[in-house]
């Protein structure tokens, strides 16, 4: 009995199967790398959103304080009493918020607020920092003289 040429070439050889497995493994490694990068970016984005919200909230609180009660001080790199707070954020972790208030003139305050996550390797990337000036020039309403 004679075997037709099509029947002799049916199926895969062992070399073809191994070659297909190697290609599949490299493809899966690339996809795995994409998943890791995506998860890291998502974590950084969550931290960044939390730090932005907390820094903005603290800046608004400082802007709501009467001008004459806004005392200069604080540090962005160390905990100064009355010029920092720690907030636990669900799904993100603890966030440290620090602020400084400086007085370039008698009627002006310069406020800087910085929030950053306490842990993680993306601490600097997730940092949020805002600044503003506050002035008070209406002396009849209690503002200091220039």
Relevant terms:
alpha+beta, five-stranded antiparallel beta sheet, 2 helices, 146 residues, rod-shaped, 5 strands
If you had to describe this structure to a student in words, what would you say it looks like?
Helices cover 38% and strands 27% of the residues. With 146 residues, the protein is of the alpha+beta class. It has one domain. The radius of gyration is 30 Å and the shape is rod-shaped. The mean pLDDT is 89.
Give the gist of this structure.
The protein has one domain. Helices cover 38% and strands 27% of the residues.
List the helices and strands and how they pair.
Blueprint: H1 5-8, H2 14-64, E1 73-74, E2 84-89, E3 93-105, E4 108-117, E5 128-135
Antiparallel strand pairs: 1-3, 2-3, 3-4, 4-5
Helix content: 25-40%
- How far is the N terminus from the C terminus? 113 Å
So how many helices?
2
Q: Quaternary state, please?
A: single chain
Radius of gyration: 30 Å
> How many separate structural domains?
1
Structural class: alpha+beta
Beta-strand residue percentage = 25-35%
Mean pLDDT: 89
């Amino acid at each position: 009995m004679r075997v037709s040429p099509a029947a002799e070439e049916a199926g895969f050889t062992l070399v073809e199967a191994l070659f297909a497995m190697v290609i599949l493994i490299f493809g899966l490694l690339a996809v795995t790398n994409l998943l890791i990068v995506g998860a890291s970016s998502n974590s950084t984005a969550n931290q960044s959103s939390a730090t932005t919200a907390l820094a903005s909230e603290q800046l608004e609180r400082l802007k709501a304080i009467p001008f004459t009660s806004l005392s200069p001080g604080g540090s962005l790199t160390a905990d100064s009493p009355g010029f920092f707070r720690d907030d636990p954020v669900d799904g993100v972790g603890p966030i440290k918020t620090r602020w400084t208030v400086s007085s370039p003139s008698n009627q002006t305050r310069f406020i800087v607020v910085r929030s950053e996550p306490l842990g993680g390797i993306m601490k600097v990337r997730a940092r949020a920092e805002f600044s503003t000036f506050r002035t008070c020039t209406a002396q009849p309403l209690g503002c200091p003289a220039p």
